[in-house]
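Running low. Invent one:
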Amino acid sequence: MQTIQINSKEDLGELIHEQKLRKSRNNLLNFTKNTLEGFEVEPYHKAYYTLLDAFAKGKIKRLMVTMPPQHGKSEGSTRRLPAYMLGLNPNLKLAIASYNSTFASKFNRDTQRIIDDSFYTEVFPQTTLMGTGVKADNNYLRNTSEFEIVGKTGGLKSVGRGGALTGNKVDVMIMDDLYKDYMEANSPIIRDSVWDWYTTVVDSRLHNNSQQLIVFTRWHEEDLIGRLETLGKVKTINSLEDIDNIELKHDEWYKVNFEAIKTGETTPVDPRLVALWPSVHSKQSLLSTMEMDVEKFECLYQGNPESQEGLLYAKFKTYDNLPAIKQVKSYTDTADTGQDHLCSIVYGIALGSEDKHLYIQDVIYT
């Protein structure tokens, strides 16, 4: 074991700073904590950044992450991750795509600001951009949609959905919210155009060792993630230990869905009990949002899009405790003649006039 002698406060400060640099190189979560002021780590952040870190180090080739809005999805996947990966390997060629070029360019500029920071230069001294005190013989490209790493072959290009990726191969493709809103995602024309762009433009720039990351808030069951799932090559990651056992097959995807409100059992990937980020989005506020439109909440916040076409009823609400009942009734299909099933539903009407719900207590179906 190496012994380090500390003779002054300056020596201690230098030691702490060196440890901070080393930890920032070690994994994406530490890198984010040390480069993003005010970043407070929630339990799900640890799981999310562990997944992104595994992606950054090539343990996962194809990763899908679905998460509610305003939960730090893009901060990890589309700002910190590209900067971190270019620090680990400044020869990587990355591309970022979003629903339009303006939004994609914003991610590009944010990544440039991270790389320009003096702390980043100490963490990854081999990764620098033009115009930050760097002298270079060649005029390296740098604008709001593309930049190149000085002295290396890597860089980052950002495009809007449908934009061109011609010219070079893509080592890492990051697709963040390819649909702007509910209206876009519910347009068959736009959904088809996204699929055509993915299969003809994106796929044509990838190679055997390319990596792909899709980060979405879901709007429709037939969005890009939904269509890829129909191919039958998407596996769910239930434990962080699964990462070490992932087979790096060229055409296999791995997926994680972070629900806004937890509905199933806790898992090592999603250890929280109720709300995903309770200090920012409490369960009460999420339930208020859900009451306004259950279908959209299931898509956007729960990552569970389901077509409502052809359904007679929306999803039923459930209750834990039966309120005071004023009247009990039964609805029975009296037209039954014995050739099909008999259905009889027993339900209660609440005592309060403001409660318009019917509380189903029993169903006979025989």
Q: What stands out?
A: The first helix runs from residue 9 to 26. DSSP finds eleven helices and eleven strands in the chain. The CA atoms of residues 186 and 365 lie 36 Å apart. The radius of gyration is 25 Å.
